[in-house]
Amino acid sequence: MLGWLMRRKLRKVIDSDILEARSMLSTMKRKLHKEGDEGTLAYGEGIGEVAGLLAKRFGISIPDALEARGLNWDQLDDASRDLFAALAKVHPMLDSPSQSVRSIAHKQGAGCLVLGHLYRLRFVTQQAPEAQQQTAAAAMADQIAEFARIMAEIGARVRDPSDARGLA
Question: How far apart (Å, rounded) are the C-alpha atoms in residues 113 and 135?
Protein backbone atom coordinates (compact mmCIF):
# COMPACT_ATOMS: atom_id res chain seq x y z
CA MET A 1 0.00 0.00 0.00
CA LEU A 2 2.77 2.43 0.84
CA GLY A 3 4.42 1.85 -2.56
CA TRP A 4 1.19 2.76 -4.36
CA LEU A 5 0.86 5.95 -2.33
CA MET A 6 4.46 6.94 -3.03
CA ARG A 7 4.02 6.35 -6.78
CA ARG A 8 0.86 8.45 -6.76
CA LYS A 9 2.64 11.31 -4.99
CA LEU A 10 5.58 11.04 -7.38
CA ARG A 11 3.18 11.21 -10.33
CA LYS A 12 1.67 14.41 -8.96
CA VAL A 13 5.10 15.95 -8.37
CA ILE A 14 6.20 15.15 -11.91
CA ASP A 15 2.97 16.46 -13.41
CA SER A 16 3.42 19.61 -11.35
CA ASP A 17 7.00 20.04 -12.62
CA ILE A 18 5.80 19.82 -16.21
CA LEU A 19 2.94 22.28 -15.65
CA GLU A 20 5.19 24.75 -13.84
CA ALA A 21 7.70 24.63 -16.70
CA ARG A 22 4.94 25.21 -19.26
CA SER A 23 3.65 28.17 -17.25
CA MET A 24 7.16 29.62 -16.88
CA LEU A 25 7.75 29.43 -20.62
CA SER A 26 4.45 31.14 -21.37
CA THR A 27 5.19 33.87 -18.81
CA MET A 28 8.69 34.45 -20.20
CA LYS A 29 7.31 34.84 -23.72
CA ARG A 30 4.76 37.41 -22.50
CA LYS A 31 7.54 39.30 -20.70
CA LEU A 32 9.59 39.44 -23.89
CA HIS A 33 6.73 41.11 -25.72
CA LYS A 34 6.05 43.49 -22.83
CA GLU A 35 9.67 44.52 -22.20
CA GLY A 36 10.75 44.91 -25.81
CA ASP A 37 14.20 44.61 -27.33
CA GLU A 38 16.15 45.83 -24.28
CA GLY A 39 14.53 43.31 -21.94
CA THR A 40 14.88 40.56 -24.52
CA LEU A 41 18.62 41.25 -24.84
CA ALA A 42 19.04 41.22 -21.07
CA TYR A 43 17.18 37.93 -20.65
CA GLY A 44 19.16 36.41 -23.51
CA GLU A 45 22.44 37.54 -21.97
CA GLY A 46 21.41 36.07 -18.62
CA ILE A 47 20.51 32.70 -20.12
CA GLY A 48 23.79 32.65 -22.05
CA GLU A 49 25.85 33.60 -18.98
CA VAL A 50 24.26 30.96 -16.77
CA ALA A 51 24.69 28.35 -19.53
CA GLY A 52 28.37 29.31 -19.71
CA LEU A 53 28.77 28.76 -15.98
CA LEU A 54 27.04 25.38 -16.21
CA ALA A 55 29.26 24.41 -19.15
CA LYS A 56 32.36 25.18 -17.09
CA ARG A 57 31.04 23.41 -14.03
CA PHE A 58 30.28 20.18 -15.87
CA GLY A 59 32.94 20.29 -18.57
CA ILE A 60 30.43 20.38 -21.43
CA SER A 61 29.95 22.73 -24.34
CA ILE A 62 27.70 25.77 -24.08
CA PRO A 63 25.28 24.30 -26.67
CA ASP A 64 25.05 21.16 -24.50
CA ALA A 65 24.50 23.32 -21.41
CA LEU A 66 21.69 25.16 -23.24
CA GLU A 67 20.03 21.81 -23.94
CA ALA A 68 20.96 20.10 -20.63
CA ARG A 69 22.65 17.29 -22.57
CA GLY A 70 25.63 15.11 -21.71
CA LEU A 71 24.86 14.86 -18.00
CA ASN A 72 23.70 12.00 -15.82
CA TRP A 73 20.61 12.18 -13.66
CA ASP A 74 22.59 13.10 -10.54
CA GLN A 75 24.26 16.06 -12.29
CA LEU A 76 20.91 17.20 -13.69
CA ASP A 77 19.34 17.04 -10.23
CA ASP A 78 22.25 18.93 -8.63
CA ALA A 79 22.17 21.60 -11.32
CA SER A 80 18.41 22.15 -11.10
CA ARG A 81 18.54 22.41 -7.31
CA ASP A 82 21.47 24.84 -7.46
CA LEU A 83 19.76 26.96 -10.13
CA PHE A 84 16.55 27.26 -8.10
CA ALA A 85 18.58 28.06 -4.96
CA ALA A 86 20.44 30.78 -6.89
CA LEU A 87 17.12 32.13 -8.14
CA ALA A 88 15.92 32.44 -4.55
CA LYS A 89 19.08 34.40 -3.68
CA VAL A 90 18.64 36.70 -6.68
CA HIS A 91 14.99 37.48 -5.94
CA PRO A 92 15.60 39.99 -3.09
CA MET A 93 18.03 41.92 -5.33
CA LEU A 94 15.14 42.76 -7.67
CA ASP A 95 14.00 45.29 -5.05
CA SER A 96 17.41 46.94 -4.72
CA PRO A 97 17.52 50.75 -4.92
CA SER A 98 20.41 50.37 -7.37
CA GLN A 99 19.38 50.04 -11.01
CA SER A 100 22.57 48.16 -11.90
CA VAL A 101 21.89 45.56 -9.17
CA ARG A 102 18.29 45.14 -10.38
CA SER A 103 19.49 44.72 -13.97
CA ILE A 104 21.99 42.03 -13.01
CA ALA A 105 19.33 40.31 -10.89
CA HIS A 106 16.90 40.26 -13.83
CA LYS A 107 19.53 38.77 -16.14
CA GLN A 108 20.73 36.14 -13.70
CA GLY A 109 17.21 35.38 -12.53
CA ALA A 110 16.05 34.72 -16.08
CA GLY A 111 18.95 32.38 -16.71
CA CYS A 112 18.44 30.47 -13.47
CA LEU A 113 14.67 30.22 -13.98
CA VAL A 114 14.72 28.98 -17.57
CA LEU A 115 17.65 26.62 -17.16
CA GLY A 116 16.46 25.43 -13.74
CA HIS A 117 13.23 24.20 -15.30
CA LEU A 118 15.08 22.72 -18.26
CA TYR A 119 17.51 20.75 -16.08
CA ARG A 120 14.66 19.60 -13.82
CA LEU A 121 12.72 18.29 -16.83
CA ARG A 122 15.75 16.47 -18.23
CA PHE A 123 16.11 14.86 -14.80
CA VAL A 124 12.44 13.88 -14.83
CA THR A 125 12.84 12.48 -18.34
CA GLN A 126 15.47 10.09 -17.01
CA GLN A 127 13.84 9.25 -13.69
CA ALA A 128 10.04 9.29 -14.15
CA PRO A 129 8.60 5.83 -13.57
CA GLU A 130 5.97 6.14 -16.31
CA ALA A 131 6.72 6.35 -20.03
CA GLN A 132 3.94 8.91 -20.56
CA GLN A 133 5.52 11.29 -18.07
CA GLN A 134 8.97 10.75 -19.56
CA THR A 135 7.60 11.63 -23.00
CA ALA A 136 5.76 14.73 -21.73
CA ALA A 137 8.82 15.92 -19.79
CA ALA A 138 11.09 15.38 -22.80
CA ALA A 139 8.75 17.31 -25.10
CA MET A 140 8.53 20.25 -22.68
CA ALA A 141 12.29 20.16 -22.11
CA ASP A 142 12.86 20.32 -25.86
CA GLN A 143 10.65 23.42 -26.09
CA ILE A 144 12.53 25.12 -23.27
CA ALA A 145 15.88 24.14 -24.78
CA GLU A 146 14.90 25.71 -28.11
CA PHE A 147 13.78 28.86 -26.28
CA ALA A 148 17.05 28.96 -24.30
CA ARG A 149 19.15 28.48 -27.45
CA ILE A 150 17.38 31.27 -29.34
CA MET A 151 17.53 33.60 -26.35
CA ALA A 152 21.25 32.94 -25.83
CA GLU A 153 21.85 33.70 -29.51
CA ILE A 154 19.94 36.97 -29.09
CA GLY A 155 21.98 37.77 -25.97
CA ALA A 156 25.19 37.08 -27.89
CA ARG A 157 23.88 39.34 -30.67
CA VAL A 158 23.97 36.52 -33.20
CA ARG A 159 20.23 37.03 -33.68
CA ASP A 160 18.05 40.12 -33.59
CA PRO A 161 15.83 40.69 -30.52
CA SER A 162 12.82 40.82 -32.84
CA ASP A 163 13.40 37.08 -33.43
CA ALA A 164 11.96 36.55 -29.94
CA ARG A 165 8.57 37.69 -31.19
CA GLY A 166 8.43 34.52 -33.23
CA LEU A 167 8.67 32.43 -30.06
CA ALA A 168 5.08 33.07 -29.03
Answer: 22
